[in-house]
Structure formats: C-alpha cells, structure tokens
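Tokens for Gamma-aminobutyraldehyde dehydrogenase. Go.
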Amino acid sequence: MSTELRRLRNYIDGEFRDAADGRTTEVVNPATGEAYATAPLSGQADVDAAMEAAARAFPAWRDTTPAERQKALLKIADAFEQRAEDLIAAEVENTGKPVGLTRSEEIPPMVDQIRFFAGAARMLEGRSAGEYMDGMTSIIRREPVGVCAQVAPWNYPMMMAVWKFAPAIAAGNTVVLKPSDTTPASTVLIAEILGEILPKGVFNVICGDRETGRMMVEHRVPAMASITGSVRAGIEVAKSASADVKRVHLELGGKAPVVVFEDTDIAKAVEDISVAGFFNAGQDCTAATRVLVHESIHDEFVSALAKAAADTKTGQPDDEDVLFGPLNNPNQLKQVEGFIERLPAHARVEAGGKRVGDKGYFFAPTVVSGLQQDDEIIQNEVFGPVITVQSFRDEEQAVEWANGVEYALASSVWTKDHSRAMRMSKKLDFGCVWINTHIPLVAEMPHGGFKKSGYGKDLSGYGFEDYTRIKHVMTSLDA
Ligand SMILES: NCCCC=O
C-alpha cells in the first residue's frame, strides 16, 4: 500500500499554487532515503507569474517607510519564534539534521538575523548632502534595487532563505526565492509565515530544479540575482545575468584552511576544530576542512583529531548524542565517497572514510593525513564530514599553502602569539579570518568571499547595502 505524499506548493502573489503544468518532483528525507513530499517542478509560466507578482508589488513596497518595513520584519522574527517547532520539523525532514541542534544552533541566529535587518532598514548611510560645486547641492538617495531573484542552497535551507529575503525586503525590494529541489519544505513554510505579514507579491517562492533557477536569472524582470551554491552554478548565473547587466551576488563555497601553530593548546584546538569540521556533516562553506599543522606537533595533533573523530557520532535526527546527520542527497554521498576512493597512495585515512549504514546517506567522521598541496582533496570542496591534515614547516609555507586554492571564503589561525595572529590575518586571502576559533557568525559582520568563492556579502550592513542602489541627486540653488 503506498502512503500519500504531502504536496508542497509554490507561493505566488499571496497564494499557494501547483506548477502551471502540474509537474512535480519527489522530495526525499536524507535520513531515511524515503520520499515524504512532492514539490512543483516550476517552468516558465510559474517563473513568469512569480516575477510579474513581484514586479506589481514592488512600487508599493519600495514606497513603504523604513519604520514600516522594520515593523514587518520584527513581526516575522516573532512569528519564526512562535512557529519554531514547525520550522524545525520541516528542516529536519529536508535535511535529516539533529533536532536538538537545529533548535539551539539555527532558530536563535535566524531570528536574530531577521531582527538585525529590521533595525538595518532604518540605518542606511550615505555621504552628507552638501555643496560640492558652487551653486549646487548634491544628495545621495539609497534605493532598493527592484525585484530580486534568489536561489538558496540545500545545506542550511531555512537560514540561507533568511540571509536572502531579510536584507532584500528590509531595503524595499520584492523577492522571488527558489529553494534547492532537495530541500523545499522549510522555505514553503517560510512563505506561509511571511504571507501572513507581508503584502501579496512581496515574497514569492517557486520550487524547481536548475532549469527553473536558470529561467529566474535569465528573466527580464529581476534587477538582481543572488545565489548561494557551487562555483559552476555561480559562473552560469554570472554569465546569464550579464546578458542584460543584472546585478549579481554570489556565495560559492569554500575550502577553509585551519592553520595550527606549535604554541596552540592542542586539546582545545582539536575539540573546536573537530566540531567546526564535522558540524552539519561538513556541508558548510566555511567548514574547518583543511588543517595545516606545524610539523613539530603534527603527530600529536593528528592522533588527537582521529580520536575526536572516532568519538563523534552521526545518526538519526532524534538521537541527542549525534553531532551531525546525513549528507543531503545520493549525489553528495557519491561525491564524498569518490574523494575517499581516489585518495593518493601517500594519504592515510586516520578515522572514518566510509558510509555508515545503508539507510539514508550517512558518512562517518573522517580524518585524512599525509596529504600534499596538489592533491585533489586539498584543492576541491568535499562538502562532507572529512578533515584533511597537512604538515607545514614555517609560517611562509603555511601562508602559501593556505592561499594556494581557488576558494577564498573563510580561514582560521591558531596561536598564542598575537603578532603572528595579526600577520596571518593580513596575509590570509580569505573573506574571514578567525583567530583561535572557527565557524561562529554574527549578524553584524559580513559573510562572503574572494576569488572563486564569489562576491557580495551576506549579513551585516555591507550585505544590506548590496540590496540597495545609490542615486546622486544634484540641484541648482538658483532656480
Ligand atoms: N555557517 C553558515 C555558512 C553558510 C554557508 O554554508
């Protein structure tokens, strides 16, 4: 007997709708490998409808006062708190994440980030108005960009949705957001929550695949395309957005170096780095994946890290001892397994290295040592619970290897030597440098990278400004 699957729907112009042509895809819970819902596979007609709704809603939303937008976002934050258990349940089905950690590590920052952007709505800055030419006064207007096409990833579906809609809506834009095809459930619930607070058309959600995303970016309506995803996807978005010179905002992953010097408290560093590497099954663009450790403490560090990995548990969402859940989908599992299968002969698997169980897409906490700078697993993003270790000789080599990848999102340095920490923070070519910590984020500070990690910032006043445009108005004083 087949169980009926829950039907997720698009949210367009204030109402829930199926795809115009009725197409759907099945949505699978990665902790069980079983389908629990269907979602629309949206096509051109759905993208058109969402974009047109957002375009119709834009003038009125643009013309709201910052105070009105703040009030709406504060209501949204309160509603997120009130509906927290529903959001957690949806996110856990989406991702298989541990329930307790989703409650403690995702809901509070998301609510705080929405409140931060509520405040930011009233704090836009520009240069002072003034007479920069005789007889003329100049002023700067900060304006919303327009309709924003936003594509969110599957690793933190609800938090990345917040990072996208909150600054956009706070600045007076309207939004069409597409969740990943593997994780639409929490975003559809977010649409329900926002739908009770925002005017129709201000926030629209369409479900679909890569093709749907391509239609959104190529659409004539949006003035801006924002995507968190792979480098491949980011390059495609940048190329298609260039056809009509849309603004692009790209967060494309990372390969964070974790540089551990010989004066570090090894036990403390290992404890923190293993959590920062394995949290969310390493499916985090800032994960502490690539440890570079000074040769004098290498062996001690590796054996402590291998023990920490062996003591780290992955498993079902309701198991409270679990640090992380499954990989998000079968392709991701295959990708992580592939990196391990292709390890060079000089690599040593110190812990893990294999799938756990045959139900769901779980992978063991893994540590690989003996690696060299040109190895595939050092140069490419694994996006799995795999921490690699390399042994470095001196500060110069550590910097060269840390920077010697195409990604440039986040990094960390571990040392008690303040001067060295400050030197390293200047030399590390990454959008974030943590010192004696790795992975914490705060709403007030920017998240975003350089090089192939993309451009544009999430969070912070800088992220907020990315969703605004600057207009110069000059007036003659003689008329
Ligand atoms: N820790 C949050 C990172 C967002 C992207 O993966």
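The chain has a mean pLDDT of 97.
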